[in-house]
Hints:
Radius of gyration: 33 Å
Strand order of the largest sheet: 1-2
Strand content: under 5%
Low-confidence stretches: 310-322
Order of helices and strands: HEEHHHHHHHHHHHEEHHHHHHHHHHH
Amino acid sequence: MGSFLAGIVADFAQHWPLYVSIPIVAALIGYGTKLVAIRMMFQPVEFIGIKPFLGWQGIVPKRAARMASIACDTMTEQLIKPAEVVARLDASRIAQEIEKPLLAGVEDIVREVAGHYQPGLWESLPVRVQRLVIERVQHESPRMVAAVLDLIKSDVDSVFDLKGMVVTSLVKDKRLLNRIFQEAGAKEFKFIARSGLVFGGAIGVIQMVAWVLFKFPLIMPLFGLFTGWFTDWLALRMIFFPIEPRRYFGIEWQGLFLKRRAEVAEAYGELIAKEIITPHNVIEAILHGPLSDRVLALIQRQLDVELGRQVSVAKPLLVFAVGSRKYQDMKLSIAEQIMNRLPETMRYIEDYATDAMDIRNVLVSKMKQLSPHEFERLLRPAFEQDEWILIATGAVLGFAVGEAQVLLLEHLAA
């Protein structure tokens, strides 16, 4: 026994630089496999390779529709409702904000529609009469827009699909979806990489002792496999579990993502408010989204009210002059042109709408009220379904590096 130990000590003294390199390489395996795993989550954004045999697409971009839908379910069911997005907008204030660009747009619409449906009559009118007609319509336009906005606010769910808007934005722009997960979990990803160094180095010390004692070739690749697998698995567990704080050996621990709830809420709310639920996107979704035909119907209805109010006597004559069908077509044409011009016109209210809707603070305050289990669902979907791929990749890379390591050790030792 004494001679066996003496032989081991002598061997270690002779080759100690090689043996000391074992935990160092194990730490690098742990760190490197984490970097690869994180990169594989988000890159490449589009599939690279030969479908369906060989290639890769980042897990988050690949599952964009599913992940966007899950994130949106949390957002729309627990954080913010469509009505909350537009409830704070004051219709009369918006009418004031867009009055100048609206008046210019209305003049173009009146001239175009009148010239189309009654070309001979409109051109034959004196300029003063044309101006009078245009000014009458301009005078009523802000009130009509305000009335339409009030109608939208009274039944926002029928004209605004918030979930559809969010999912469409995220699926269309996979890089934006990546950013949500990367920015919300920035510190967690750094922890994953750094933990690989610590855990890998610790396992490497055991690996070194086993190699010094037995010099069995399979020790290195098996330890490499275990290092890659275990460090990936443990890092992911430490991010999300336990959901509620618990004590382990006298030390309180909670999943890092859950522990950082307040900080994550600030980053998440800021990004969503700046990139997705913006006044521009909301207006576009209402006016040109899947429910835009209902908005068009609201404008037509309000247009009919305004025409009835202003030309209660002349309206029957107008219908008689152009024909009932033409009158309906004319009304539709006006409504469509108003809708086409509103996005550009509404650009003037974006600063006001950003302050009034205050999406960021609404999201942040609501997120801070989520239970730990609800909060965990914000980022967890990015890992959950395909995390086994990341762990398996870490194990395979660890095994390959371990195999190369044993060949190098045997060569140098010889």
